[in-house]
Amino acid sequence: MTYKSILTVLTSEATANAPLAQSAALATSFEGHAEALCLGVDRTQTGYYYAGANALVLQETMSRAKDDAAKLQNLAEETLKKTGCRYSTDAGIAQIADMGRHVARLSRFSDLVVLGKPYGEGVGVEAEPVVEAALFEGRAPVLVTPEENQLKGKPKTVLVAWNESIEAMTAIRRALPLLITADLVRIVVIDPPQHGPERSDPGGMLAQMLARHGVKCEIDVLSKTLPRVSDLLIRHTTDTNADLIVMGAYGHSRFREAILGGATRNMLEKATVPVLMAH
């Protein structure tokens, strides 16, 4: 497996630089194709259309969203063209309530989705639904890239969060192209269960599986000395100078959809290095 179709979804010029640069770097490294979906967001509440809202007001919001999409597409074209990678761009407008459908459709046909952090100063409210749609509806692996620290080329040290869950294994399998190229992969097990199937050798079977792919592994068994597992992982990332975290994405049911769980949200809020997640 490799990353040949790499999608990024842009909704704001203020947060577009990091995912564009990351997408281009990965497309170059894996000889893949970077695709940028540039969405102008119509933030008009859906109910306004049925409450007698002034037609001029509605038209104004649509026109503004269309202009935003065009500006985003120009930015994406200029940025990706300079990198020399293979790329394409597309522009459109969508309401916040309907964004998930568009993002999920393209995510299903992508090997990897690269997005900016969905939380922080200057980040729009639409950023979180974009991440949720790619993960839970599109079922694609998502690489969330902070503005200040992108993954340049091959990772040196990768931290893999392992808790024997299906979500964690899904993320690891989807991250294999990056794990294979890394200098070292650290399998992190936090408070392994005393009566679990791996009680005598936490992380051992995973390390064996990865080693057969040529991945150099080490296993770190940690005690939960902080209230949140995500805080412990972030601290260990700093201690080991890791430049990528791989972990499962967990959510809560919202009718037929899902929303990010607390641990996943906390990790995306505080992580200072790229985080690759899958569900």
CATH superfamily caption of the largest domain = HUPs
Query: Beta-strand level of the residues, as a percent range?
Result: 25-35%
User: What Rg do the Cα atoms give?
Assistant: 20 Å
Helix content: 25-40%
Which class of the largest domain in CATH terms? Alpha Beta
Provide mean pLDDT, rounded: 91
Number of strands: 12
CATH architecture of the largest domain: 3-Layer(aba) Sandwich
Form type: globular
The biggest beta sheet, please? 10 strands, mixed
**What name does the CATH topology of the largest domain carry?**
Rossmann fold
What does this structure look like?
This protein is an alpha/beta fold. The chain is built from 9 helices and 12 strands. It has 2 domains: 5-145, HUPs (Rossmann fold, 3-Layer(aba) Sandwich), CATH 3.40.50; 157-278, Rossmann fold (3-Layer(aba) Sandwich), CATH 3.40.50.620. The protein has helices spanning 17-29, 55-83, 99-107, 127-137, 166-174, 176-181, 204-211, 229-240, 262-270; strands at residues 5-10, 33-42, 86-95, 112-116, 142-145, 157-161, 184-190, 217-222, 244-248, 251-254, 257-260, 275-278. Strands 3-2-1-4-5-12-9-6-7-8 form a 10-stranded mixed sheet, with helices on both faces. The chain has a two-stranded antiparallel sheet with strand order 10-11. Helix 1 packs parallel to helix 2, helix 3 crosses helix 4 (127-137) and helix 8 packs parallel to helix 9. The chain is globular. The two termini are 18 Å apart.
